[in-house]
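Dear colleagues,

As part of the handover before I leave the project, I'm documenting each prediction I ran so the next person doesn't have to rerun anything. This entry is a single chain, and its sequence is reproduced below.
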Amino acid sequence: MLAATVFFIDTFTEIEGAIAVLYVIATLLASQASTRLGLVAAASLFAVLALVSFFYTHSSNYDLQSTIRLLVALAALLVTTMLLLKTETARLALLSMNAALKESETRYRSIFDQTRVALWERDYSRLRAYLMDFKAKGDADVKRLALNDPQFVGECLSRIVVVAANEAARDMLGPQAASTGELRRSILSDHGKFLELLQVIMDGGRVYEDKVEARTDTGEEKLVLLSITFPEDPAAFNRVVVSMVDVTQRELALQTLADAQSELARASKASAIGAMSASLAHELNQPLGAILVNGPTLLRWLDRDPPDVAAARRSCERIIRDAQRASEIISNTRGLLSQTAGKLEPVRIDDLIDETLALMEHELQRSATSIVVEVGSIASVPIVRIELQQVLINLLSNAIQAMTESQSDQRLITVTADAPDPDHLRIVVRDSGPGIDAKILKKLFTPFNTKGHRLWNGAFDLPINH
C-alpha cells in the first residue's frame, strides 16, 4: 500500500522532488515480513515502479534534475537493499550462534547434572580481584598475608560463591553443604591447603589438585580429591568448575593393605629367621660333631705314656679347623639375614673338594664310605667359598645317610667336576644308595625335607662369570 501510494504521488501529481526515495521506507517494511529472496523481489519491483513513473511523466521532456532525482532514488534503494541483506545475513548468523550456544549450554548442563562425579560451579571473580589488589601492592605471599591478618582466610572464603551443584555433589556432602551461596568453611577446613589454593590463583596458575577434608551435613568427615581448573581469561572466573571425588574408602583400603603388608613382612621375617635358625643348626651339626670327636681323641693322645704329641697336634689342628668352619657358617648365615652379598674369591675346585673331604673325614671313615674324585682341567673360578662348601657337605652327608639307612653293601660316593661350556661349571655328587623314593619326588626341593635330601644324588651348575 505504501509503494502504491508513492507510485501514485510520483506519477499523477505535480509535486516536484525525489518522491521515489520513499520506496526505501517500503523496502524497510518489506524486510521485516519477507525472506531474502522476497526482499530482493520487492526492491526490484520498487525500482521498476520508479522507472515506470519516470518514463510516464517525462516521456516528452527529459531534464537533468528529474534524471538526477531518479538516480538518487535508485541508488538509495540499492544501498538500502544491500544493507538489509547484510543485516539479514548477520542476523541469521547470530541466530545460528545462539542456537549452537544454547545447544552447548544444554549439553553442558546435562553432563554437569547427570555425571556421578561431584561438581560445583563457583564464582571466584571477587576472590581473584581481592588477591590481585594485594599483588598490585607488592604483597604476593599468601602465607605472610594470612599470618599478618587473622581475618584474611575468612575474608577470602566469604568471597567465593557457589553458583550451582549437581546431584552427585548433593549426595556426597548433603543438600546444605552443596547448596548455592557463600562457600561453607567446612568444605576446606585445612587452612594450609586453602592457602596453597589462594597462592595458585595469585600466581596465575591453571590447576589446583590435592586431597582435602570435607564435612557433610551429618558431621561425617570425608577425604576427597579436590580438582580445580582455572580459566586463562580473568573474566571467566565467575564460573569455575570444581570437582570432588570421594577417596575415603580407597585411602582406608590402601592403609589396610599397607598394614597387611607390614604384618606380612614381619611374619615373613620371623619365618625367615626360623628357617635360618633351622639351617644354622643343620649346618653347625657337622663341624661341632667333628669337634666332639676330635676333643676326646686329643685327650687320649695326651694320656698316653709317653704322650703322642704329633697325633695330639693333628687332632688339635682339626679342632681349630672345624671351629673356624663353624664360625664361617655363622658369619655366612648372618650375612644372609642382613641381605649382604658373600665375598667372592678365586678358588680352585679341586682344592675346594679336597678341603671339603678333609672336613668330612670322620663321617666317611665311620660309615666306611669310599670316595672317588674326578676333576677335569678347570681354572680358578670366583665363588663364595663357604656357600659352595656347605652345598657339597650337605650332598655328601645326604649320600652317607642314604647309604647307611639302606644298609648298602658297597658304599661309594663319586664326585665329578667339569665345565660343560665356557660359562658354567658342573659338580656332580653320586652315591651307590637306593636312589630317590617316588613318594619323595614331589617334596624333593621342599626346604628342610631331610628325608628327601638323604635320598638325593645331587648335581648343580655354577655360572662361572657370576
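The CA atoms of residues 59 and 164 lie 74 Å apart. The chain has 15 helices and twelve strands.

All the best with the project,
I.
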